[in-house]
Amino acid sequence: xxxxxxxxxxxxxxxxxxxxxxxxxxxxxxxxxxxxxxxxxxxxxxxxxxxxxxxxxxxxxxxxxxxxxxxxxxxxxxxxxxxxxxxxxxxxxxxxxxxxxxxxxxxxxxxxxxxxxxxxxxxxxxxxxxxxxxxxxxxxxxxxxxxxxxxxxxxxxxxxxxxxxxxxxxxxxxxxxxxxxxxxxxxxxxxxxxxxxxxxxxxxxxxxxxxxxxxxxxxxxxxxxxxxxxxxxxxxxxxxxxxxxxxxx
Length: 249
Known about the structure:
Elements: E1 2-4, E2 12-14, E3 17-18, H1 31-41, E4 54-55, E5 71-74, H2 87-99, E6 104-109, H3 112-118, E7 128-133, H4 141-147, E8 153-158, E9 175-179, H5 191-204, E10 208-212, H6 218-221, E11 234-237, E12 242-245
Parallel strand pairs: 2-5, 5-6, 6-7, 7-8, 8-9, 9-10
Antiparallel strand pairs: 1-2, 3-4, 11-12
């Protein structure tokens, strides 16, 4: 379950866990659920349980075989901090990430409460970035949980952005991604929501990445905001194990 990714802010995906369930409004039209159903119908053995949480022990060490450094999105088809993923399994995933130090691993979760609870029981190597998915102002409490995690880079995925976020504290946050919802039932994103977040990032000197407008045809809608691409991100300097925060492209 490791493959080249078409997600704009990463290089590859690695899915030692598949399957999830809905916990907030942002999950309503989950892209991963749609894809899992399709793969199940195609007879893909990894999705024999459809979108129920499934652990793939045989895939835990996959990144160790990838020699060329890359950005790796961990569990694009699940949530590593789902309650059905045991702490021992999570530790095995982190052990692989620590040993595969040539890569940078990006983890996203909506389960920030469990993340906060388990974080002290996990070793956090500098090549592991941890992020929280936040879809509207109501879910910004996840950012407070995220701030407590001792990761080198903490980031936000404000996608699908289905409502305005007017109060956004970026203290302790090293990167912000914004994107609209895509798919047949996509809820529209007001351009002013994206602009407001971009301006907060610029004022706070936090890298801002605009992923997409979304919609039924996300390619046609594009990913330019106010006439330009916003592809800012933390820059990882592997040889020094340091991060540079660059707001210029």
